[in-house]
């Protein structure tokens, strides 16, 4: 089943149309890097001339795509040993699975012989999430949990106070009071865009804290359970009643634009958002935000754990050059270069402990540095889920089939947000998808 899905993706996306990894360019060797088109990655691309100057004869070619497209293209190429890329941007969802499949190069030998790289400087939970059998198979670029950004000025104007540990019930009440359609301000922004890494990421954390789960310990699908229905109805109702315009097609980028342009009072999403929220060159609300822990219902915490990282496909041809690039983009000096060039709010967060000791960063990130670290620290299944589950992952189910299953479930959720189908119908269809996956695991997948 996995192989079929991956091959189908490869055919649909035509991954063979990309320049081959390690191609010979006019100026020497060309490394082809597959990367996600997020703001922090764009900064890395902007600084990449520095790497080329430090490494004569090596040219970089970036294939930069939106998250959903990048995931599919990178997965298809790596799984089928297409050889298109020298380095790929992946996450803690892919890294341990792909390492077990033999698709990725073991990076620990490269790390150990690179002076000053200092793997012990990585936040332990982030480092461990990219490891398999004690070795790292990807190196983190930025790490995150999730939290809630809120406009302190709008809260004060409405006479509201954000609790130290808010509940989702409280957040829904606040959203209703802050919703000001006449002024073009929604009460909250929540992702509704289809994609297992888009809307399903924040939604899954809501499901977890409501006591829901995708599968029980025996791999029985649970998407029509009372807990899952309660979470889905809450999420859909909240975003339909007090969320952003066009919520069914809004993802991280769209919510980011809405928040930084003053079009929403609250935004629940990845902790990495704070850098953009506080960036004077991109935001109209600099200095106006507070950052609260991910809201809860039945659990102590509900934030996720995620890291965008760089891995090296096993079939890569120029591994030494690829590692030079990967360590350049993930070392301590890169953090300082970003801060000095673009501003300290643009620094890749949540990865290196040393980042949080840089005086300039501590000052710039005073509002959100500790909430980010607290969220990452609290992000584990024992704190964020009510019942034990047979899979790793908080905002995802750590099995290969979840790329397909999660995308299908997210499409149903998005249709419910758009008012095209009922929540019950969306979950009934999602349950059918999940039952097929669960059955394969019960049969000794």
Automatic annotation (TrEMBL):
<dbReference type="Pfam" id="PF01547">
    <property type="entry name" value="SBP_bac_1"/>
</dbReference>
<keyword id="KW-0732">Signal</keyword>
<dbReference type="InterPro" id="IPR050490">
    <property type="entry name" value="Bact_solute-bd_prot1"/>
</dbReference>
<dbReference type="InterPro" id="IPR006059">
    <property type="entry name" value="SBP"/>
</dbReference>
<feature type="signal peptide">
    <location>
        <begin position="1"/>
        <end position="21"/>
    </location>
</feature>
<protein>
    <submittedName>
        <fullName>Sugar ABC transporter substrate-binding protein</fullName>
    </submittedName>
</protein>
């Amino acid at each position: 089943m996995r192989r079929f899905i991956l091959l189908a993706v490869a055919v649909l996306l035509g991954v063979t149309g990309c320049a081959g990894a390690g191609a010979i360019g006019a100026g020497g060797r060309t490394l082809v890097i597959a990367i996600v088109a997020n703001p922090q990655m764009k900064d890395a691309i902007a600084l990449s001339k520095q790497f080329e100057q430090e490494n004569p004869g090596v040219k970089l070619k970036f294939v930069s795509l939106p998250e959903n497209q990048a995931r599919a293209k990178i997965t298809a190429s790596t799984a089928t040993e297409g050889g298109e890329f020298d380095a790929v941007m992946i996450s803690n969802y892919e890294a341990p699975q792909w390492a077990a499949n033999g698709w990725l190069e073991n990076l620990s030998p490269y790390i150990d012989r690179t002076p000053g790289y200092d793997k012990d400087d990585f936040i332990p939970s982030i480092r461990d999430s990219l490891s398999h059998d004690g070795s790292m198979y990807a190196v983190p670029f930025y790490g995150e949990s999730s939290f809630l950004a809120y406009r302190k000025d709008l809260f004060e104007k409405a006479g509201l106070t954000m609790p130290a540990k808010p509940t989702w019930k409280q957040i829904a009440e606040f959203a209703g009071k802050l919703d000001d359609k006449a002024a073009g301000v929604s009460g909250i922004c929540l992702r509704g865009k289809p994609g297992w890494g888009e809307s399903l990421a924040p939604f899954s954390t809501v499901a977890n804290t409501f006591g829901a789960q995708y599968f029980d310990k025996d791999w029985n699908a649970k998407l029509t359970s009372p807990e899952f229905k309660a979470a889905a109805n809450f999420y859909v109702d909240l975003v339909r009643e007090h969320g952003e315009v066009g919520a069914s097609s809004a993802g991280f980028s769209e919510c980011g634009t809405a928040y930084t342009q003053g079009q929403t009072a609250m935004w629940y999403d990845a902790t990495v958002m704070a850098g953009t929220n506080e960036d004077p060159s991109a935001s109209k609300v600099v200095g106006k935000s507070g950052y609260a822990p991910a809201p809860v219902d039945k659990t102590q915490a509900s934030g996720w754990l995620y890291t965008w990282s760089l891995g090296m496909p096993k079939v890569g041809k120029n591994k030494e050059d690829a590692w030079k690039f990967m360590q350049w983009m993930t070392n301590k000096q890169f953090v300082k270069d970003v801060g000095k060039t673009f501003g300290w709010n643009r620094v890749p967060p949540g990865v290196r402990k040393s980042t949080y000791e840089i005086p300039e960063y501590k000052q710039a990130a005073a509002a959100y540095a500790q909430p980010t670290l607290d969220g990452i620290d609290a992000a584990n299944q024992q704190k964020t889920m009510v019942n034990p589950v047979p899979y790793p992952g908080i905002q995802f189910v750590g099995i290969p089939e979840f790329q397909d299953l999660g995308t299908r479930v997210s499409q149903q959720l998005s249709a419910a947000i758009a008012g095209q189908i009922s929540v019950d119908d969306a979950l009934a269809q999602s349950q059918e998808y999940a039952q097929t996956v669960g059955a394969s695991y019960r049969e000794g997948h």
